[in-house]
């Protein structure tokens, strides 16, 4: 078992050298995760596209399936556009880390939806990482470089 742990640690360590959490212009990320707080418990998916070294635009959708705040079945979907400000370069973070505050604007069922979040990504290698977003909605999951 110790040999397996050591081998896994070495592979992970070598992969960290090529990890890149934010590439700037034309960078593309897909995130899939569990929405664990906010409007309810459910699943979330987002897409971000880098328009500069500091900004990305994107879209996302949340599907709430438990503990929804008002039990209105029409409001169990949040479909939104999003804008993020990436702070990796301004904060001098290592390349595998990215911190990004952002805004979400869209439709929550049949009403207007607005959200704000601060997120963090950590990439284990050049393709896969983990993310956490906290705000009026929160999620945790997998981040994928395209």
Automatic annotation (TrEMBL):
Keyword Signal annotated: yes
Keyword set, alphabetical order: Signal
Signal peptide: 1-21
Pfam families xref list: DUF6646
Protein name per the record: Outer membrane protein beta-barrel domain-containing protein
Source organism of the structure: Chryseobacterium taklimakanense
């Amino acid at each position: 078992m110790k040999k397996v742990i050591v081998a896994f640690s070495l592979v992970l360590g070598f992969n960290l050298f090529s990890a890149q959490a934010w590439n700037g212009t034309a960078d593309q990320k897909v995130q899939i995760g569990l929405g664990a707080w906010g409007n309810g418990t459910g699943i979330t998916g987002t897409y971000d596209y880098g328009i500069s070294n500091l900004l990305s635009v994107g879209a996302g959708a949340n599907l709430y399936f438990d503990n929804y705040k008002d039990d209105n079945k029409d409001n169990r979907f949040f479909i939104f556009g999003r804008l993020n400000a990436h702070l990796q370069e301004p904060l001098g973070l290592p390349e595998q880390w990215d911190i990004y505050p952002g805004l979400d604007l869209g439709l929550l069922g049949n009403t207007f939806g607005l959200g704000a979040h601060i997120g963090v990504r950590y990439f284990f290698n050049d393709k896969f990482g983990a993310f956490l977003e906290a705000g009026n909605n929160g999620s945790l999951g997998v981040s994928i470089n395209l």
